[in-house]
Design brief:
Blueprint (H helix, E strand, L loop, with lengths): L3 H10 L5 E3 L8 H10 L5 E3 L8 H10 L5 E3 L19 E3 L7 H10 L5 E3 L8 H10 L5 E3 L7 H10 L5 E4 L7 H4 L7 E4 L3 E2 L3 H6 L1 H12 L3
Parallel strand pairs: 1-2, 2-3, 3-4, 4-5, 5-6, 6-7, 7-8
Antiparallel strand pairs: 8-9
Helix pairs in contact: 1-2, 2-3, 4-5, 5-6
Pfam families: DUF7885 (PF25372)
Organism: Diversispora epigaea
Protein name: F-box/LRR-repeat protein 15-like leucin rich repeat domain-containing protein
Length: 224
């Protein structure tokens, strides 16, 4: 398994890297990630799932130094990721699922990552619905949104209807405070997954209920 020392040597030698995947290298720390941030400024895709010892310090370095970054995956990292100074305007793919992050991280994403198309917050049980709604509101290009096991309600669905006009996939695994009736008022082209079943509009349902759906959709978005 690669160590901080080995990773630092790679980063300093291969400083034109555009793609790097060090997922499951559980012994790495902020030291090597900061070296990567300082040496590999051309990075466009960076994946380091299950990096147990990283903190928001190194993540801030990555996001602020690698300005060409398009994809970032930090799933299930056990380090302290509570407050991140994010400046990554080109980021399109961000998976931070299964982390104990707070609202500060989500708000930072909302305030700077306007180009996001894919966002996975699944399993982030400490973030509030308010911050989730903010990131939905300020990231209008979202096409894929994962909110499984998040504490959300119909308020989030209404925000999605108002703001996520490009959404194609929505995961609501174990989100039990959402009414099925409200889900059916979303754009029928959205593929919705929830805890009990996969809900999609069939062609026959869409055709037979077009007028009702349009009325429902209007009522859902009329207050946007």
């Amino acid at each position: 398994m690669i160590s901080d020392r080995g990773l630092c040597e790679i980063a300093q030698t291969c400083n034109k890297l555009e793609y790097l995947n060090i997922s499951y290298c559980r012994s790495i720390t902020d030291k090597s990630l900061i070296t990567i941030a300082e040496s590999c400024r051309n990075l466009q895709e960076f994946y380091f799932s299950e990096a147990y010892w990283i903190t928001d310090k190194s993540i801030s370095h990555i996001l602020n130094s690698c300005t060409n970054l398009r994809s970032l995956d930090i799933v299930f990292s056990r380090g302290e990721i509570k407050d991140t100074d994010i400046s990554s305007p080109n980021l399109k793919y961000f998976d931070i699922s299964d982390n104990d992050i707070g609202d500060e991280v989500v708000e930072a994403v909302a305030n700077t990552c306007y180009e996001l198309e894919y966002l996975d917050l699944g399993g982030c049980g400490f973030i509030t619905e308010l911050s989730i709604c903010n990131v939905i509101r300020f990231c209008p290009k979202l096409q894929h949104l994962e909110l499984g096991f998040c504490d959300i309600s119909d308020t989030t669905i209404k925000e999605i209807a108002c703001s996520c006009l490009n959404l194609k996939h929505l995961d609501l695994d174990s989100c039990e405070n959402i009414s099925e009736k409200l889900l059916k008022r979303l754009d029928p082209s959205i593929h919705i997954e929830n805890c009990d079943s996969t809900y999609e509009w069939s062609d026959s349902e869409s055709n037979s209920d077009t007028s009702n759906h349009n009325d429902d959709k209007y009522s859902l978005t009329s207050n946007c």
